[in-house]
Write a sequence for this structure.
C-alpha cells in the first residue's frame, strides 16, 4: 500500500490567516529569545534551532523572516553572532579595587 503525498496544510490556509499565524510565531520566537537573554545571558541553541526551523533568522537581536534558505547562517553561526550582540548590551563588570579583592 502506497501512501499518497498530501500538500502542506498551510497551502490551504488563506493568505491573511497565514500572515497572522506567521506574525504570532515570530512574536513567540522573539519572546523566547528575550527570555533566554534574561535567564542565560545568551540565546540558547534550542531557541536558535526553533527560529531556524520556523524559517526565521536572528539579526540585530530581533527575529526576522528569512528571505531564503540558501546562504542562511548555520545555527552555530547565529549563536556566535547572538553572543557578540549580547555582549554589546551587557553593562561592564565591576572590578574590585584595593582591599575588596581579598
Amino acid at each position: 500500500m502506497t501512501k499518497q503525498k498530501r500538500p502542506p496544510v498551510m497551502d490551504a490556509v488563506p493568505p491573511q490567516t497565514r500572515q497572522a499565524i506567521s506574525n504570532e510565531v515570530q512574536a513567540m520566537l522573539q519572546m523566547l529569545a528575550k527570555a533566554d537573554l534574561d535567564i542565560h545571558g545568551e540565546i540558547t541553541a534550542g531557541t536558535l534551532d526553533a527560529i531556524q526551523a520556523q524559517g526565521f533568522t536572528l539579526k540585530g537581536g530581533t527575529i526576522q523572516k528569512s528571505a531564503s534558505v540558501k546562504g542562511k547562517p548555520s545555527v552555530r553561526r547565529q549563536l556566535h553572532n547572538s553572543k557578540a550582540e549580547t555582549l554589546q548590551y551587557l553593562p561592564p563588570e565591576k572590578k574590585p579595587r584595593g582591599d575588596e579583592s581579598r
In short: Residues 10-66+73-84 form one domain. Strands lie at 56-59, 62-65.
